[in-house]
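Sat 14:20. Reprocessing the chain from the morning session after the first attempt stalled halfway. Input below, unchanged.
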Amino acid sequence: MRVMGVDPGLTRCGISMVESGPGRRVSALAVDVVRTPQDLELAHRLLRVSDVAEEWMDTHRPEAVAIERVFAQHNVRTAMGTAQAGGVIALAAARRGIKVAFHTPSEVKAAVTGSGTAGKAQVTAMVTRILGLQVAPKPADAADALALAICHCWRAPLLERMAEAQARADAARQRYEQRLAEQRKAVRG
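Finished this time. Tokens:
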């Protein structure tokens, strides 16, 4: 599976492309950080992020885009910019029919380090190790984008199986309720 990982942001937006193999093997195909100047109008900053993301999607053809979910931040302005950057990327993916998944920071940290409270240094170290990189990805936004893609590669199959099981359970419940309604109707006659 080819996954584009995105650590959204307006000043720095980490973007990566990872491909999974058998088992838990993953390899990095590309990683970069999109930077936009703070003095540029918001719409133009979002356009720059979107343009680069769309170029990556068209070039690398991911099967899924994994974006960090904005959970909570102390700075509301930063949270808004992060959410907006993630939104334009999700929209670009949706227009191309690419699946979009949002993962919380703690899910990503737990997936790559084993601890949902791991620090940035731990995440970077594990991403470097998992991908067999000679040099740690920098800045942290690049490492986080790679971590998001790795997380999705490892979690997506489980999430799909759970969704399929839920769909089967829902269908079985619906059939049961329909039979029950038919039986009640027959009794009332």
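The mean pLDDT is 92.
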